[in-house]
Amino acid sequence: MTQQTEANQQTDATAKAGALIIPVTLFEQNCMLLWCEATRKAVVIDPGGDVDKILAAIKQANVSVEKIWLTHGHIDHVGGAADLRDALEVEIIGPHIDDKFLTDNVVMSGLRFGMAGVRDFVPDRWLEEGDQVSVGKLVFDVLHCPGHSPGSVVFFNKEMRFAHVGDVLFSGSVGRTDLPGGDHGTLIRSITEKLLPLGDDVGFICGHGPGSSIGQERMTNPFLTGEM
Fold this sequence. Notes:
single chain, alpha+beta, Metallo-beta-lactamase, Chain A, six-stranded mixed sheet, 8 helices, 14 strands, disordered N terminus
């Protein structure tokens, strides 16, 4: 899946997905519009800001957004969540409740990082390990993967062999752990115990930069191969 490029993955005759990656804000965060082709129902994952840009992408894709999903509570991933929720009249789902201290302080984080116009919010539903979320005919398992933030979650679709990992894992790197609530050891355990067992064939989109696969990162990521 590439910037502003539709990606279709056939799972069977009735269920395939499309997606747009929408880089938002100065953080170039990968906001994702994901939809079920069979129903044209969609979700927005991590609307970090630039809500007008996200709304334009939704119109371009000609889909109906049902929910907003959040991987974690950092400002660059949630800065536009409250405004987008109000514009679309949909619910905010996620992250894990351990990130409540972040969603309660979006305005303060915005001041720290020079992002004006952001708003604190309370998600309509917190997510737990083992939960499932769906869009149209597509079902995603929820994995609680703390370390980058205490409440980080990953969305994994078994049939498509696809995951959205937020800032837990990157192509050639892992999430930073020097922000409040971050812990490097916890992050590495989340990756090795939750993500690597998903299988080398699983492709993923992350919160910044290009996507990758579990197998590629297992073999070459210096944080996982012990080369750091």
